Amino acid sequence: MTHHPVPFSQFVLKVHSRCDLACDHCYVYEHADTSWRGRPRSASEEVLAAAAARIGEHARTHRLPAVHVVLHGGEPLLAGPARLRRAGELLRAALPEGCALDLRIHTNGVLLDRRFCELFAELDIRVGVSLDGDRAANDRHRRFADGRSSHGKVLAAVALLRQPEFRHLYAGLLCTVDVENDPVAVYDALLALEPPRIDFLLPHATWDNPPARPPGAGPTPYAEWLLAVHDRWTAQGRPVPIRSFDSIHRTLRGRSSLTEALGLDPADLVVIETDGSLEQADSLKTAYDGAAATGFDLFTHTLDEVARHPGMVERQSGLAGLSADCRACPVVRSCGGGLYAHRYRTGGAFDNPSVFCGDLMKLITTIRDRVGGPAAVPPQGGPRGPLTDAQLDDLATGYGSAATVAALGRAQLDVSRRLLAAAGAGGSAAWDLLAELDGRAPAAVDAVLAHPYVRAWAVRLLAGEPGADTGGLAEIAAAAALRAGHPFTLDLPVRGGALHLPTLGRLKVGGTGETRLTGTAEGFSAGGHRIGWDQPGGPSWQPVRRVALPGWTVALEDTDPQRDSHRWAPAPRLAEPELLAWSGALREAWELLGRDLPGYAAGIGAGLAVVTPLAPGPDGRDVSAAARQAPGAVGIARPATAPILALLLAHEFQHVKLGAVLDFHDLFDPADDRLFHAPWRPDPRPLEGLFQGTYAHLAVTEFWGTRVRAYDGLRGAAAETARVQLATWRGHTVRAVETLAGSGSLTALGERFANGMRDSAARWLDEPVGAGAQEAARAAAAENLAAFRTTAGH
């Protein structure tokens, strides 16, 4: 079988090849490989430029949506600010349009100071720090060459990263496991530093040089150590992502791993040394001298050539690349044979289980037994999603052009068709009529199936919800036939004394059970009522009423029985005065959206087909909602002012858009069942709820931002309210984006969305609001956090 290499998306760029610490567990200087001795101390301008050019070329060739680059060493801070700045500038300039750069630096922290942090803030470089726990644990290995402790300097570096102005740069902590250290003390020390992520790494070892196992420690000391941490982490509600544990939980559910050390995902990482050499993963340096070498370099070889190197191919071959013992193992899909370097044995190369095999087996099976058995592995591959990369990036910012939202709508129509087939196929007169119409008048069928509450009915029926019945299929077929002018006769259910025709309206016939409906090209009749398209129909016929505005026509849906899909109760049929009030409010709100929120208005005009009036909220509160299974609809209780209606429309349609994206793309690990702090709510939220709220509040932030600009220089209650609202919502949204980004559960696309949301929210951070508004926002955030901690039991 021909091997098609996986494109590289992760790059380790060595900017300095020496270190200011003398850690005795370092794989670069303390293990088998000695290649570092012959390499330049720093990467030259030529090497940096060639690295950026090759990465850009590779991204362009493979249309990569993002690349991840880690500035590494040695100790990369020894390269100095000027060289690090140049590396960042060259990398950003070389990438093609549409390819995001996730740029990070991994450091021991000894040299990290404000000067570096200001540079990293300017260039958006996230910082990971190596730290092995409390002072006693860290000093066991991580000392200066003269024996001095590095712990105090590292803590000072982390303290700098935890300051508000640099907190967004703090990428996490990396800890190498030493089983002679107290696992809980190490974990507690790291957790106290509030990292957005922790990585626990097994020490590098091979069958030739096995890991240390203290006397009397038992056969699996590394598993026991990690399980002690896992127990405490779980008991605390998983307060921070831990990549090895999250990867095990994911792979047990058939998902991808987050680390090369676990799972069967193909390796997609290449190392660029200071002389321009292209190498395999640094961990191979622990196997034998030259194990990581490929013989390729930046100046004469493309990255595609490197991807075809036998060592790279071996690390991308999944199950087929493992030893026979591994392939027969019951936990192989989680373990993946362990880290490739840890399989090495003289005479057998890498065709062996990991030297940590027993520990990995114990760790994975214990976690598996505690969380339940593995879920079914989801199907791999499948059709490409409905959106292009450019459209996904468009949506990631919170916006969405008319073309992008229309593409989402077409995809949602396909989902509704498939749901309808699952809910109604087989042998009924209604199904036969729909099948005939789909051939004769597909546009009429599509017009009905695109109605948001058709999907709501199908989902309810398939879920077996009380009150959901197959009569909905007859209603759908009758509505499509009437739209097509196709003659038919069908029995329709009577609900609340009326026959319901999705997208058209309802006919009040009285009674219960079923009533026969007859349709022709001129109209329809049922229960003694005759409705012609050329006449009003009288009080028994209640058509769906639409508000036609420049660039947007929207239905005010007050007849469909499925409109109760929203959190709040729907309003009854609107009386004429209320209908006029709604029409006027929508017209004003639409004008305001087009003027102040054009980036959101375009998508609303293309994709929001239905507004369902809701009953007034308790105590006169403004209430609104979007239903995941009713795409294209929002529910709103008409507020007192048109600007608030505009705000509610923009806010709720954000939920509609993101829900549609989630129908086709994973933005995060759906198996992650942790709860998170949402700055606008006192109760903990699941990951999807936090993502939805953050995405919706991008529109809220921009709404108040435009209001603040409109009130520039003006005083008064309205102006001050706008300033407080902007200060509050921009703070909430930025904090929530960072929580998402630090969750450890985002997919590559989810990270693109997080970056897009971060950029959109950041546009409003420098908008002046005054000290009073800023203080009110801080107080509200503190009050919310206190309520959250009380609710969550912290």
From TrEMBL:
<dbReference type="GO" id="GO:0016491">
    <property type="term" value="F:oxidoreductase activity"/>
</dbReference>
<dbReference type="InterPro" id="IPR023867">
    <property type="entry name" value="Sulphatase_maturase_rSAM"/>
</dbReference>
<dbReference type="InterPro" id="IPR007197">
    <property type="entry name" value="rSAM"/>
</dbReference>
<dbReference type="InterPro" id="IPR013785">
    <property type="entry name" value="Aldolase_TIM"/>
</dbReference>
<dbReference type="InterPro" id="IPR026335">
    <property type="entry name" value="rSAM_SPASM_FxsB"/>
</dbReference>
<keyword id="KW-0479">Metal-binding</keyword>
<protein>
    <submittedName>
        <fullName>FxsB family cyclophane-forming radical SAM/SPASM peptide maturase</fullName>
    </submittedName>
</protein>
<keyword id="KW-0411">Iron-sulfur</keyword>
<keyword id="KW-0949">S-adenosyl-L-methionine</keyword>
<dbReference type="Pfam" id="PF04055">
    <property type="entry name" value="Radical_SAM"/>
</dbReference>
<dbReference type="InterPro" id="IPR058240">
    <property type="entry name" value="rSAM_sf"/>
</dbReference>
<keyword id="KW-0408">Iron</keyword>
<feature type="domain" description="Radical SAM core">
    <location>
        <begin position="5"/>
        <end position="238"/>
    </location>
</feature>
<dbReference type="GO" id="GO:0046872">
    <property type="term" value="F:metal ion binding"/>
</dbReference>
<feature type="region of interest" description="Disordered">
    <location>
        <begin position="520"/>
        <end position="540"/>
    </location>
</feature>
<dbReference type="InterPro" id="IPR026337">
    <property type="entry name" value="AKG_HExxH"/>
</dbReference>
<dbReference type="GO" id="GO:0051536">
    <property type="term" value="F:iron-sulfur cluster binding"/>
</dbReference>
